[in-house]
Amino acid sequence: MASHNETKLTIPAAANPSAALTLDRPTMEDAADDMSQRAQWLRAAVLGANDGLVSTASLMMGVGAVKADARAMVLSGFAGLIAGACSMAIGEFVSVHSQLDVELAEIKRRGADKEVAGLPRPMQAAMASALAFATGAMVPLLAAGFIRGYRVRLGVVAAAASVALVVFGCAGAALGRAPLGRAGARVLVGGWVAMGLTFGLMKLFGSAGL
Predict the structure, then answer these.
(1) Where are its TM segments located (predicted)?
(2) Model pTM?
(3) How many other β-carbons are positioned within 10 Å of the β-carbon of residue 78?
(4) Exposure of 49 by Cβ count < 10 A (0-12 exposed, 13-18 middle, 19+ buried)?
(5) Contact present, 143 and 160 (Cβ < 8 Å)
(6) Quick one: CA dihedral 58, 205, 156, 183, positive or negative?
(7) Average pLDDT, stretch 161-190?
(8) Among 77, 72, 75, which Cα is nearest to 60's?
């Protein structure tokens, strides 16, 4: 019988489209995870700034309801900035450090002591939270710091806070891929409620002589 010569062709992995896709898939997934983590950090920063804005503006409006002195209003806002930033930093440090302890325990249990990439950073998270809160709190402080008129000062603080609330709400919605208009309106109304309640209750208590 005549022998048949068989020729076998070996396709390199690089020339195989499915292999190339398989090789690229981890890189694409890592990039997607990195983008997701960055979006979460930015969204947390926007929320922190929103907290600083609402709490400080509400505090200043409450003090302004019972005292027309600009210095008292600004000092109360500055005290709120410091206290809020410290509270945010400490809370975030404790929370992220607890998460770090859990992940380190899991890594140790699996015996992968060298697996340290991507671990939470408590100090970085604490500083970011404090900075975000302080950034939001500076909006009403700057708005009220250069105005002497009592009524004008209250109006400017409320107006500046309203504009910043819409900006922060839309930014958070954009990062979370939510409708901008609805999110901005929700944040704005929430800020109005907080400032209005604080002003109204303090006005009531002040008129009652408490």
Answers:
(1) 70-90, 125-147, 154-175, 187-206
(2) 0.76
(3) 16
(4) buried
(5) yes
(6) positive
(7) 87
(8) 77
The distance from CA 201 to its chain's CA centroid, rounded to whole angstroms, is 29
Tens of pLDDT along 37-95?
666 677 778 888 999 999 999 999 999 999 888 899 999 999 999 999 999 999 999 99
The runs of H, that is alpha helices, within the chain are: 17-66, 70-110, 122-144, 150-176, 180-207
Query: Helix 150-176 to helix 180-207 angle, to the nearest 10 degrees?
Result: 150
- 183 CB contacts (<8 Å, ≥6 apart)? 169, 170, 172, 173, 176
Any idea where the domains of the chain sit in the sequence?
47-207
Contact 96, 122 (CB under 8 A): yes
Place of tokens 């890189």: 27
CB atoms within 10 A of CB 153: 21
Closest C-alpha among 132, 104, 141 to residue 44: 132
Distance CA 179, CA 170 (A): 8
d(CA 64, CA 72): 8
Structure tokens at 56: 């400080």
Whether the CB-CB separation of 153 and 128 falls below 8 Å is answered with: no
